[in-house]
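Lab notebook, bench 4. Still working through the backlog of constructs that have no structural model yet. Next entry is a single chain of 383 residues. Request: give me the structure tokens for it.
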Amino acid sequence: MMIDWEVENIYRLDEDLIIRIKDLWRKDPFSSPFCAPSFLEMMVKKVVGKKEVPFFAKGYDRSGNLAALWPLRLDRSGCLHFLQFYLTDYNTALFLPWVEKDMLSQGLARAVEQIRPKTVFLTNVPGWGKTCEAAVQGLEQAGYRCVPVAYDKVPCVQEKDDPDGMKQFGRQFNKHRGLKNYSNRLMKMKGFHFEVDDTQEDINEWVDQFCVAHDKRWETTSTPSKYQDEKIRTDLKDALKAWAKDQALIRFSVHVMNRRITFVVGLKNKKNKDLIYFHTARLPVYNKLSTGNITIRLMGLWMKKNGYQCLDFGRGDEAYKHYFANETRDLWRVYGARSLVSLHYWKGCIEAYVKAKDSRRQLWAMLDSHVFKSRWVRVFRRE
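Model written out:
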């Protein structure tokens, strides 16, 4: 089969395109929640509000059906990114199961050749699927220099592909006897209830309680909650409503004494085989019982009963995730530039060198904050 690509700047998703994207997303082998049609529609509005330009590279089969899609945006400095710029852990292209990597790469190549960005920066690209390899190949086809960087690790609890895999998956959430005892103590408290909600009901109330818990959890630290900002609260509500509309959202909470004390935003991925542990908050109560870990344990046991095969902890390498995880996955960035004479390209080369070994990662944090983001470097970005 062949794919015909067209690249268009789209400031609003019309009904026909939404229907086409919805059909493509449902047939995509991974169906990432961050490419759900309602969430993409929200991101287009946000990008336009930032005075940046949304681009969609759309691939059609010979029957005129949408077979692949690259959602992109061009920022005001001339750098090309994925469309999704926040409230996202993974950025991917969408494609039908029969679309090969070479076909997918042609879509990004066409977009880069048409837009001619000064630089390209595709971040939060997962190792699973075809997006990362297709992105590198597409940039090379367009004549750009590019550097892929495995910049972070994603912990997860993955069911093994063997006859005992399901039992082992459940054991990952039951292997800590102390946590199991804490769970039993919490479950005996008055009004205990483990809530699992995949509906669109009461999202505003749930998010308001989530934000209060997040604020109280971090108010005594040096990093206060970002959810004190009403705009960020509203964006979270809009995102959850978008995911719920496309049936990608599951909310988890622990109730004690007639109130929610923990909150987790779960997102369905890979045809409902994976669950992404996306956002979390908890009230600073019953701290000695590790209520956050108890919630993860209860989620894992619920997932085992409901046929899920992986709890994906998403971006962030926090220690509590490794308390449960049995493997890690690479998360990628792809740097691209027109030529070798580019600070952006060399930044990618340096990051690739540094991130190749754990012992060098502290060096990268220093370079990124004190060199690449310093004022004297900005003049070199006029490429």
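Notes after review: The chain has twelve helices and 13 strands. The chain has two domains: 4-153+330-381, 156-328. Flag for follow-up if needed.
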